[in-house]
Amino acid sequence: MHDELKLIKALADGNRLRVVAALSRYQELCACQITELLQVSGATTSRHLAILQDAGLASSRKDGRWVYFSLSRPKGSASLFQWLNQSLSSSETWHSDTETLKLIMAMTPEDLCRRQRGEVCCPA
């Protein structure tokens, strides 16, 4: 029962739910793309992603300086994700996030990094 509680607690936060929804739409997202979507600090995004990983809802891989996250679907969670997708399809926030994600995905991680941290991060 401990794992189920972690999963439910992870989904009980609006921003983490938004991340799960975004990851369900895209195969993987860079941490900087998730930060841009949520409009929170990198540290806050990192904390949300750690909670999702701990609950078994996200996995990560490092590619150079970038960390990419993808959705993990714990065993037995298919009906939960089906319900989430149905519920979120009528959400105004999700529709707004979908449009924002289109703009974010049109940018490279380097461009996002410069936007978030300035030229020091990724000199042109």
UniProtKB/TrEMBL annotation:
The keyword Transcription regulation applies. Pfam families: HTH_5. Residues 1-91 form the HTH arsR-type domain. PROSITE patterns: HTH_ARSR_2 (PS50987). One of its GO terms (molecular function) is DNA binding. SMART domains: HTH_ARSR (SM00418). InterPro entries: ArsR-like_HTH, HTH_ArsR_DNA-bd_dom, HTH_MetalResp_TranReg, WH-like_DNA-bd_sf, WH_DNA-bd_sf. Keywords: DNA-binding, Transcription, Transcription regulation. It comes from the Bacteria. PANTHER family: ARSENICAL RESISTANCE OPERON REPRESSOR (PTHR33154:SF18), TRANSCRIPTIONAL REGULATOR, ARSR FAMILY (PTHR33154). This is Winged helix-turn-helix transcriptional regulator. It comes from Oceaniferula marina.
